[in-house]
Design brief:
phosphotransferase system; about 750 residues; magnesium; kinase; alpha/beta; cytoplasm; eight-stranded mixed sheet
Length: about 750
């Protein structure tokens, strides 16, 4: 049966139209299951009826004519309940209804299963038999599998506009992915297809090896030039560390890297395109076997470079468009940093990619440039989307393809309001983040790969709440030396002095990895990451600690933060290493003061070790993103479950409130550095809990500041009490929006559905 299933799926996926796919489905299913009838009913949301769209076994003239409401007849019952219905004697069922147009009075047995895509009922798939027969478990499982396959076909049809009826209620296709960079945009989709197909290169023996090597080097030189042009377009809008992304591309193309390996393969007897494809695919396959988001992104970078070089080796390869629409939403299977740079910045308004995560190069650049971005957008039929009108919602990770006039007008209004709000809020950014009853709430900034005007930020924040030291490690081809790290850290400390700068020790693993230090694990988020890695490699941690301490000389604004702490033993070991680094530097004649040391509260187990932690460290910093992820067992980079990730889940809020209360009892300062702190409503809740500082990405500062300045501390405590009593995430979100509306602050939140 599995072979039959595969053949049907291949045939359906190869169909040229929805009608052809439906016809193939009913024909092949009826034959595979040896039934008398196979029919497909699709849900017309405008009419709220299930419509017979194709059948083999019932009267063909009934197609498009027979329809029923949800709950009407056996088919309507399957659609209403969204569960299979298996009957040996269908006419005896109380919900049975006879439709004369179909001629189905001859059939006794009935098996119907719902067609569901992303929790939305799209239709019902039915088989019927003249003889009385109860379909067995294998039959039922087979039909459920086919319905799931048909759901994907329908989703594609809705996206391409080939499905005109039935249609969705709002008149357009909507796809969901992982929100990687906030904001909203409307424009025209430009599909960026891979410049060449590495998998379709034939093997050929070269007649002139030296000529093939010359061709290779010319192609690499052309790609290096293209990468340089792309980097030059972005250089004024991104930081020096972000420019390093393009430097990494150039290094991969260097003679000592990709070129040398491909040249060796040519000399072994393969022509240039084949040698290139062999080398690139070998590297990609190796990296993709590692179950780690960051390494998978490096595989994407290598694949992108290989395609670009191959495009110059092949005369008929598709090229990047010469011109772009004024409002371009770039869309592709996997977008790279280089492909982003090919679009003029004044025309690029959004990015969509089927592959990718929040740690990909393109996500890092998108956040830095303020471009709305959604990644992990599955079920997109790329070749047929080029030129389609679309709306991208980077707040929720949604893409609306071919939106109707009402939807487009709605989002145009929201986009205009968002732009106007940013301009208005800019005027009060140098004012204190103080409540209406005089309570000052320090706002701090997270630094790393973001376009930050340091000079202007210094007057607007209480310091750096999180400096991600792993970023320069990620941009290097090796571990940076003590001298290199000292220079980087000194720049950060000097830029914000005398304000405190919280530097987190190297936090790799999980969704962050180093190309030169791979971590191969089946479950990286529960594995070797954060402090676990650096304690196992004290030679790496000691260099970093020495660099931090040396950089702080004369400034004394350094705070060291230990990530991914799960046990007291880890803290004790790390503190001994900090003491040792300080002693070594003092022995070398360096005069320095001991910095404050804190731990990240992100592993749920630490919530039950606060007394012991408080006896050892100076402050707590809550990593709300990971704490939420671990409390809810949700990988926020997985588009299938990303909707379940929400820091406003009652369990998360309860844990945070408990932590704030315990921190006050223990007299240990506690701050929050995560997405919840950058959410205006979330920030008010955290303030009501009693957290002493909030740290966020720079773009969030203006909205959070505006919210704090317009409420009283007493109001936030009342809001907290009301919210903690609510049982569901939806109830919490609804209540927060209601209260923000009452305070006339709803405009600070992302637009409601």
């Amino acid at each position: 049966m599995l072979d039959v299933l595969r053949r049907i799926i291949q045939e359906v996926n190869g169909a040229r139209s929805l009608e052809a796919a439906l016809a193939t489905m009913v024909r092949r299913i009826r034959k595979a299951m040896r039934t008398d009838v196979c029919s497909i009913y699709l849900f017309d949301a405008e009419r709220e009826r299930l419509v017979l769209m194709d059948t083999l076994g019932l009267h063909s003239e009934a197609v498009g004519q027979v329809s029923m409401e949800l709950g009407e007849g056996l088919v309507g019952l399957v659609g209403q309940r969204e569960e299979p219905l298996n009957l040996e004697d269908a006419p005896s069922h109380p919900y049975f209804r006879y439709f004369a147009e179909t001629g189905e009075e001859r059939f006794s047995s009935f098996l119907g299963v719902p067609i569901i895509h992303q929790r939305r009922m799209l239709g019902v798939l039915v088989v019927q038999q003249q003889a009385m027969r109860r379909f067995d478990e294998g039959d039922e499982a087979f039909l459920i599998t086919m319905a799931a396959q048909l759901a994907g076909v329908l989703a594609h049809a809705m996206a391409t506009g080939t499905l005109t009826r039935p249609a969705q209620a709002d008149g357009q296709a909507m796809f969901a992915g992982v929100a990687a960079s906030p904001g909203m945009a409307s424009g025209e989709l430009v599909v960026l297809m891979p410049p060449a197909d590495l998998n379709s290169v034939p093997d050929l023996i070269p007649t002139d090896i030296e000529a093939e090597i010359t061709r290779l080097h010319e192609a690499i030189a052309n790609v290096r030039k293209e990468i340089g042009v792309a980097a030059a377009r972005l250089v004024k809008r991104i930081s020096a560390q972000e420019v390093a992304l393009f430097d990494a591309y150039q290094q991969m193309l260097g003679d000592a890297a990709l070129g040398q390996e491909v040249e060796k393969r040519i000399r072994e007897g393969q022509w240039a395109p084949g040698a290139l494809a062999d080398v690139v695919k070998r590297h990609v396959q190796y990296l993709e076997r590692v179950d780690d988001n960051y390494l998978r992104e490096r595989a994407a970078d290598i694949r992108d470079l290989g395609r670009r070089v191959l495009a110059h080796l092949q005369e008929d390869s598709p090229r990047t468009p010469d011109t772009f629409p004024e409002q371009t939403i770039l869309i592709g299977d996997e977008l790279s940093a280089a492909s982003l740079g090919e679009v003029p910045r004044d025309k690029l308004v959004g990015l969509v990619s089927i592959r990718g995560s929040s740690t990909s190069h393109v996500a890092i650049l998108a956040r830095a440039m303020g471009i709305p971005t959604v990644l992990g957008m599955v079920d997109l039929p790329l070749p047929r989307l080029n030129g389609a009108r679309a709306i991208l919602d980077g707040h929720r990770g949604r893409l609306f393809v071919r939106p109707d006039v009402e939807r487009e007008h709605h989002y145009e209004t929201l986009i205009a309001e968002e732009k106007a709000l940013s301009e208005v809020l800019e005027h009060e950014q140098d004012r204190p983040s103080e409540t209406s009853d005089g309570y000052y709430m320090p706002l701090m900034v997270n630094t790393g790969l973001a376009v930050e005007a340091v000079a202007s930020l210094k007057s607007r924040v209480g310091g750096v709440g999180l400096y991600r030291t792993e970023v320069p490690f990620m941009m290097n081809e090796r571990f940076p030396s003590e001298q290199e790290q000292t220079r980087l850290y000194r720049d950060q400390l000097e830029s914000f002095a005398p304000l405190p700068v919280v530097m987190r020790t190297l936090d790799i693993g999980g969704d962050k990895d180093l190309p030169y230090f791979p971590i191969d694990e089946a479950n990286p988020f529960l594995g070797w990451r954060g402090i676990r890695v650096t304690l196992d490699h004290p030679e790496v941690l000691m260099v970093q600690l020495r660099a931090m301490l040396r950089a702080s000389v004369g400034l004394d604004n350094l705070c060291i933060l230990l990530p991914m702490i799960s046990s007291i033993e880890e803290v004790d070991t790390a503190l001994k290493l900090i003491d040792r680094a300080q002693r070594e530097l003092i022995e070398e004649g360096v005069k320095l003061a001991r910095p404050q040391v804190g731990v990240m509260i992100e592993v749920p187990g630490t919530l039950y070790q606060l007394d012991a932690l408080a006896a050892r460290v100076d402050f707590f910093s809550v990593g709300s993103n990971d704490l939420t992820q671990y409390l809810l067992a949700v990988d926020r980079n997985n588009p299938r479950v990303a909707s379940l990730y929400d820091a406003c889940h009652p369990a998360v809020l309860g844990a945070l409130s408990h932590l704030a209360s315990e921190s006050r009892r223990l007299q240990v300062p506690a701050s929050v550095c995560g997405e919840l702190a950058g959410d205006p409503a979330g920030a008010l809740l955290l303030m009501g809990m009693g957290f002493e500082a909030l740290s966020m990405n720079a773009p969030s500062l203006s909205r959070v500041r505006a919210a704090i300045r317009r409420v009283s501390l007493a109001d936030t405590r009342t809001l907290l009490d009301e919210t903690l009593a609510l049982p569901t995430t939806a109830a919490v979100r609804a209540h927060l929006r209601q209260r923000m509306g009452e305070w006339k602050l709803a405009h600070l939140l992302p637009p409601d559905d």
